[in-house]
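Lab notebook: predicted structure, single chain.

Context: the supervisor wants predicted structures on file for every construct in the current expression panel, including those that have not yet been purified. This is the next one on the list. No modifications to the sequence; it matches the entry in the shared construct table.
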Amino acid sequence: MSKIIIALYILATSSALVLIKLGSKTGALVHFVDSKVRFNFDLYNLSGVALYGISFLLYVYLISKYDLGYIIPLTTAFVYTLIFIASFFIFKEAFTIPKVIGIIFIIIGLAFLNLKK
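Prediction complete. Output recorded below exactly as produced.
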């Protein structure tokens, strides 16, 4: 069950970021006009914010059940990796050598964090 919650958190967070990025093509989510706050909500932004809310609840659950030194690096590494892949396919961002090396270091770091004493 815990692996499912971790996977749901990673998917919700990554999907929320992608959706908010897609929604930002029409402008920032929040901006100021004549000293007033204006919101730019479309289906992408609303879906992204909703998924962020879900991911926050899952995050609170996960940090209550696991050591912070374990769960935060684990989930962050997977979120970074998924965002890296999604950015390439959805937003046509480039795979650069520094980005690829960074992802490799993240994966190596995860392996070290999960070594048994």
